[in-house]
Write a structure and sequence with these properties.
mainly alpha; flat; Ferritin; 81% helix; 367 residues
Length: 367
């Protein structure tokens, strides 16, 4: 058990170092790139210390290669942008921090506040200039609903909801054209509803942000000294020495536009990239992702009908559920097989319930 625990911890350190190194290679800003490279070096040092600790305990543990999960995340980062990797790293550092605190509490040791230093480092880079702090933190905030999670959940919503609908109608009928009609209707209704909801969500957020930003600009123009003091306090709250905080704030307010950009990031926590994002793009992406999932259970009914179509639909849906469950482990880091099976069980239970209800309704009507 002790060997497995050390191996698991070692793999986390190696994967984290690999992902930091990947980001460092992708980041165009040399100063920010060097920051991530240093974080990679620190994680590799942690890994080497774990190996030394294992050897001191007479445990033969070799230095592992990055896991398949880490390599897949690295590939996604290289091809689609590294925001996803940043989100995973923040979650990983938080998990490690929580684990350290829990162990200290169990051992009766004092929690000194340094346990979450890597999380704090990621969120507040005091050594970088104000605009670059905002750049990194803005990226972190944009990760919260990262693209992979949205894609997986969107496809999952389409698959589970339409599979339940298809099985319910199949239970009430002979599995003929009625199922196809209901499945296509469910696909379109669900996709339109999801995309409209996404459009409203993004548009509402943009309008709220725009209003907050306008208020902030008015405050900068009417009360620049007070706003400058607020920025100094924000920097000091991040652990930046007072002299440096004052100097950074003074530099920021040499240009109103620059001060405005920094304050909306630091004080309001708004990422300007979110304002620029298109509500229509979000709506279209949501529509497509829902359709991808929803088409799986209804597809067989385009070609065949009856019991055979129902069986093929269930098999295809089961495979889709497993892939979705396994895909989410890229974010969670959990066992892909367990996660896939769990998704299959929940999805099939939902289908079984609706099929049973459909069967009862169909029997009642025919009786």
């Amino acid at each position: 058990m002790k060997v497995k625990k050390i191996k698991d911890s070692l793999q986390v350190e190696v994967d984290t170092a690999y992902l930091y190194e990947t980001i460092a290679g992708l980041e165009k800003d040399e100063e920010i790139s060097s920051f991530y490279a240093e974080m990679s070096r620190i994680e590799r040092t942690h890994a080497k210390k774990l190996i030394e600790k294992a050897h001191q305990m007479n445990l033969e543990i070799a230095f592992p290669q990055p896991s398949k999960r880490a390599k897949i995340l690295g590939w996604i980062g290289k091809n689609f942008g590294y925001n996803l990797i940043l989100g995973v790293l923040v979650d990983t550092e938080k998990s490690i921090s929580a684990s350290v605190v829990k162990k200290k509490a169990a051992d009766g040791k004092r929690v000194d506040g340094n346990e979450d230093r890597h999380v704090n480092i990621l969120k507040s880079i005091g050594k970088l200039s104000g605009d670059k702090i905002g750049k990194i933190e803005g990226r972190h905030r944009s990760v919260g609903g990262n693209a992979l999670r949205a894609a997986v959940l969107g496809a999952n919503d389409g698959l589970v909801s339409n599979m339940s609908l298809v099985m319910g109608v199949a239970g009430a009928t002979s599995g003929g054209s009625e199922v196809l009609i209901a499945g296509v209707a469910g696909l379109l209704a669900g996709a339109i509803s999801m995309s409209l909801g996404e459009w409203i969500s993004v548009k509402s957020s943009q309008e709220l942000y725009e209003r907050q930003m306008k208020i902030e600009m008015d405050e900068i123009e009417n009360s620049p000294d007070e706003e400058k003091q607020e920025l100094i306090l924000l920097y000091k709250a991040k652990g930046i020495p007072e002299n440096d905080a004052v100097s950074m704030a003074e530099n920021a307010f040499k240009n109103t536009g620059n001060a405005y950009e920094i304050l909306i990031k630091e004080e309001l926590g708004i990422n300007p990239d979110e304002i620029k994002s298109s509500a229509w793009e979000a709506a279209i992406a949501s529509f497509i992702l829902f359709v991808i999932g929803a088409i799986i259970p209804v597809a067989p009914f385009f070609f065949i009908s009856g019991v055979h179509a129902v069986i093929i639909s269930l098999i295809a849906s089961t495979i889709g559920l497993f892939i979705i469950g396994a895909s989410i482990t890229l974010i969670t880091g959990k066992n892909f097989f367990k996660s896939g099976i769990r998704q299959v069980i929940f999805g099939l239970l939902a289908a079984a319930v609706t099929f049973g209800i459909g069967k009862l309704i169909g029997t009642s009507i025919s009786g």
